[in-house]
Amino acid sequence: xxxxxxxxxxxxxGPAELARLRAQGLATNKEIRRFKVxxxxxxxxxxxxxxxxxxxxxxxxxxxxxxxxxxMLSSPGKVKKxxxxxxxxxxxxxxxxxxxxxxxxEALKAGKDLDLSICTSAALPLKREWLEFLRDQRFxxxxxxxxxxxxxxxxxxxxxxxxxxxxxxxxxxxxLDVIGRRRAMAIQCVHPxxxxxxxxxxxxxxxxxxxxxxxEVIHGFGWKDKKSLxxxxxSQVLAWVWGETLQGRRRFVVCSxxxxxxxxxxxLEDWCPFHSSMETYPDGGFSFYPFxxxxxxxxxxSRVGGAAEGVPERWRDCxxxxxxxxxxxxxxDYYRNPAVNEGNDPYKWRTEMxxxxxxxxxxxxxxxxxxxxxxxxxxxxxRIS
Length: 385
Ligand code: SF4
Hints:
By secondary structure, the chain is of the alpha/beta class. It has helices at residues 6-13, 15-23, 62-73, 93-110, 128-136, 149-153, 165-178, 198-208, 227-246, 258-262, 266-271, 273-276, 296-301, 325-328, 338-341, 344-364, 369-383; strands at residues 34-38, 79-85, 113-120, 139-145, 184-190, 212-217, 252-253, 278-280, 286-288. Helix content is 44%, strand content 12%.
């Protein structure tokens, strides 16, 4: 890829152009570290905790792609992470390919480090050639999987109501082979139904070959009665990972947040929704996490501008100040769904506990060689690019 000339850089991301775009809400003064994009809505599965309308046939337009990539890259901060989701993004792989090449070229112009990541249900046959392209583009690849066959098939079923665990297995082998264990990740979806088995399911995923396992909390399903189980179970997982680490075996939890946990930006990540919670639906509409758990009506009410019209006035000029009422109340009138909010506490506990775990690792790393190695590896593999 040829390096852009200084005048090309100025025209695309120079101060004058940025000021012009910011005035329209098409660029932002706030750091965006992570931006999640649902490229399509179609999916071979009908998981009962996903509210995306899989039959709507929506695919993100190229204008929206260019708008959102430039919106993210023009924001302050050196490191950017673009996460491609669906639906099932592998159903539109040529679009994934085009987005990756465009985003890489724009990152070069903007002078940013870009991490690319893609998430799949691995329920359709994945082609080696697709994975080789992703490997060459230094992608991180996440597979949504709940645990063993019983836990997974309880919720992750197809149109004919068949579970998807068995058909994923050849894909998982291929992913580990081509993408490699450092860049492949399992997203372990913890549901109130399977929370008691969190450690068993974690170990099942390790047994499949995953070393990076992100504990994800499913929102909106009867957490009230099972909430009290979440912390003890998460503690079990972290205690087991600690023991494995002392044996020189590397397993990583909540990998995507490790760099933020260990370094800067924890306050920003917690408070300013622009930092880590920006998402785009295929219609180009921006929102804050968690769009996949919000139905169509919720989507309309949680829209925060979009790639075409820019962000609304109220979010154009604000700058982060934790002591300001403006920031403290930033999302107080944002769309709230009581059912979705049920998962908020486990989600918050997950992040807090993983962060405390990484703090403990960092402390132990001063004297313990195995922890030092773990820390070093966490920063390499979780930072990605
Ligand atoms: S009001 Fe504060 S927290 Fe909200 S978007 Fe603006 S800077 Fe971020």
